[in-house]
Write a structure and sequence with these properties.
heterodimer, A: 350 residues, alpha/beta, Peroxisomal Thiolase, Chain A, domain 1, two-stranded antiparallel ribbon, 12 helices, 13 strands, 33% helix, 22% strand, B: 163 residues, mainly beta, 2 domains, 3-stranded antiparallel sheet, 7% helix
Chain lengths: 350, 163
């Protein structure tokens, strides 16, 4: 295995709506991550992008993203129809092949192009569940209800997750939603999809994240303290909701085990858990305890730019290593209903 | 076996709000005035008409100043459509061409009419036929089609770089 590290990242300020085209949104962030890394475009060996055509409503819209890269002379480039974090996983494998030493990974999405709660319905099984048109919140609410009834979470614990994330987001300049709330205030709020309240649900956003990864000495020459990828693993559960546990996340637990999460203390975990009850399920599945700071950025609850929120978690987890405030962190990305897919990455300083 | 369900209908409807973006907007405003407004790349200075999604794909940067290009242009390449398809509104055979407007550095696609398909050729000079002004919208559909101007053909060297 080659040692690979995250050496730079950049994010757009998450917005509820934007007038810029997706490509216009990408360019400043791609430029920023190159500047942060102190590397020229020509020195990027591989480019990998995560986005979703259902969000733009245009087939093959991801091809236009190449316009943001200055692909002349020609570049080596790939795309995943998923969050940019999954593009990072592909780029990590690409570096493992030995063909390249550096990769620029980016994810972007303009959630405001359509009704994102309805667009997400299209990821459900198209024969039995999809035609009922349950929106994303309703699907999440079913899971939250099952978790409350079985006692694996409480409404108070969910409110505490909302309180902490919204407080943490105050110091995150990229967050869309932030603020201090009391538990009483959160628990008194109206329900939007019973049992979920507005602040139990993610703040969907238009956003972009870009990350540069590099191998071995190349990483050491580009960053003072690279965030080394010590383990990375991706696990998927059944698409059929009827085959799924509603109160546990076995794919997240398996990915955490394979990525080596439990072999040492995790200082900071950045979790892509869109809903408050999901953060509780995930924290338990990953085996994280009191000593781990969860989502100092405010997490996906306070800004969920579809297709870049997972990569943003990786960027935040890496930033804690790079600025020396943590030695071992965890970046996580999820996808699908009830967090069907989980990608877990363990990062360490040297 | 006759009771097997072989097919179901599950209609899907999603509404999208398309945003042209600030750079393409000036192009669309131009079309409302019967003008072709493109944009220049601040790095390589090529003029994009239309200005794609507001970016120069070659340089990976945002496009800069507006540049109004000419109404007339040159066919750089074309194809003759002979295949009927669902929803076809134009009588076949017809010609779809890439047209390099005078002053632009990128070709654009449009329909060629008022000429036999067999007579269309690379280098042919063409001009737009606009819809009646009261039907104009912020759309390239304001131009019904392009037709030959009757000028001598452009020299091959003048558009060879486009091929």
């Amino acid at each position: 295995m080659r040692d690979v590290a995250i050496i730079a990242s950049a994010q757009a300020i998450n917005a509820a709506t934007t007038t810029a085209t997706p490509v216009e949104m990408l360019i400043p962030v791609v430029n920023q991550v190159l500047e942060n890394a102190g590397i020229a475009r020509a020195d990027i060996g591989f480019w990998c992008h995560g986005s979703c055509d259902y969000m733009t409503g245009q087939p093959f819209s991801f091809v236009s993203a190449v316009d943001a890269l200055g692909a002349w002379p020609p570049i080596i480039e790939s795309h995943v129809e998923a969050d940019g974090a999954f593009a990072l996983y592909e780029a990590w494998i690409k570096i493992q092949t030995g063909e390249v030493d550096t990769a620029l990974v980016f994810g972007n999405g303009r959630s405001s192009s359509g009704d994102i709660n309805r667009i997400l319905t299209l990821q459900l099984d198209p024969y039995v569940v999809g035609p009922l048109w349950p929106d994303d919140r309703s699907i999440a609410a079913l899971q939250a209800r099952a978790c409350l009834e079985s006692g694996v979470v409480t409404e108070r614990a969910m409110a505490e997750v909302a309180m902490r994330n919204h407080h943490n987001a105050i110091s995150n300049p990229y967050a869309l939603r932030r603020g201090d709330h009391t538990i009483d205030e959160l628990m008194a709020a109206a329900r939007v999809a019973d049992p979920l309240r507005e602040l139990d649900c993610p703040a969907h956003a238009d956003g972009v994240t870009a990350v540069i990864i590099a191998a071995g000495d190349r990483a050491r020459s580009l960053a003072k303290r690279p965030a080394w990828i010590r383990g990375i693993d991706h696990r998927i559960e059944s698409q059929n909701l009827g085959n799924r546990s509603m109160t546990t996340l076995p794919s997240a637990a398996a990915a955490a085990h394979k990525a080596g999460v439990g072999s040492d203390k995790i200082d900071v975990a950045e979790l892509h858990a869109p809903y408050t009850h999901q953060e509780l399920l995930l924290t338990s599945a990953l085996g994280l305890g009191e000593s781990t700071s969860i989502n100092p950025s405010g997490g996906a609850l306070c800004a969920n730019p579809m297709m870049s929120a997972g990569l943003a978690r990786f960027a935040e987890a890496a930033a804690r290593i790079m600025n020396g405030s943590a030695d071992r962190t965890l970046g996580h990305a999820s996808s699908g209903p009830w967090m069907q897919q989980n990608l877990v990455c363990v990062l360490e300083g040297e | 076996m006759s009771d097997d369900v072989l097919r179901i209908r599950t209609p899907i409807g999603i509404k999208y709000q398309y945003s042209a973006g600030p750079r393409v907007s000036s192009h669309l405003h131009g079309l409302m005035d019967g003008r072709f407004v493109g944009k220049r790349c601040p790095t390589c200075h090529l003029v994009y008409m239309p200005p794609r999604n507001g970016t120069c794909a070659k340089c990976g940067c945002l496009l800069g100043e507006d540049v109004e290009v000419g109404q007339r242009g040159t066919i750089t390449t074309f194809c003759i459509v002979n295949v009927p398809f669902l929803g076809q509104t134009i009588k076949i055979p017809y010609v779809a061409a890439t047209i390099l407007l005078d002053g632009a550095d990128m070709g654009m696609s449009h329909l060629i009419q008022e000429v036999e398909a067999a007579d269309v050729r690379m280098g042919m000079r063409v001009e737009p036929v606009w819809r009646p002004r009261d039907e104009w919208q912020p759309s390239m559909e304001n131009v019904l089609y392009f037709r030959p101007t009757g000028e001598p053909d452009a020299a091959f060297e003048s558009y060879a770089g486009q091929l």
